[in-house]
Design a protein that fits this description.
This protein is an alpha+beta fold and about 170 residues long. It is built from three helices and five strands; from the N terminus they run αβββββαα. The chain has one domain. About 25% of the residues are buried.
Length: about 170
């Protein structure tokens, strides 16, 4: 067996280090230029979700939730929650009426979930089963996307827990 020289060992190692350094630098530059537009889009999506859940309502920001008012009357509460899905965090906006019933659930972010099955958590057919619930008994998971489905249920449950911690008596 031929013995390798120091040059034959170091040159490939240095080449790999240089490739890694250039790649990491390129990724940092791309992240620098895309961070602001991504954050702007996320804020716009959250604003659209708020408007979809409580159209025309004035929102009063609190630490863990927003209170929604229409004509000076409390219309409900909006909580933005998240839970760990199959591919990463799933973020939701959950509207809850003053009596502690879920009004509407909207997925804000679930981009890491499996295309096809995992993305079905965004569909109205799945999300509509949370409406008018004060507890999450009887929620059906999506076959093949159980982890993603349970993450949505966990995030909705967390919103209900926030409601209860405010003095509500849901469930």
């Amino acid at each position: 067996m031929k013995k390798l020289s120091l040059k034959e060992i170091l040159l490939p190692a240095l080449a790999l280090c240089l490739i890694c350094f250039i790649t990491a630098g390129a990724m940092a530059v791309v992240r620098h230029f895309t961070r602001a537009p991504i954050e702007k889009n996320q804020l716009a999506e959250a604003s659209d979700a708020r408007e979809a859940i409580f159209p025309g309502a004035a929102l009063e920001e609190h630490e863990n939730y927003c209170a929604a008012y229409r004509d000076g009357t409390l219309a409900g509460y909006l909580m933005e929650t998240q839970a760990q899905g199959y591919g990463g965090p799933i973020q939701l906006a959950v509207g809850i009426d003053p009596d502690g019933r879920v009004l509407h659930v909207q997925v804000l972010a679930a981009d890491s979930e499996t295309p096809g099955l995992g993305q079905k958590i965004k569909e109205a057919g799945f999300l509509s089963q949370f409406a008018d619930k004060q507890s999450l008994d009887g929620i059906d998971c999506i076959a093949g996307a159980t982890i993603s489905s349970k993450a949505v249920a966990d995030a909705v449950d967390h919103a209900l827990e926030i409601y209860k911690s405010m003095g509500g008596d849901a469930g």
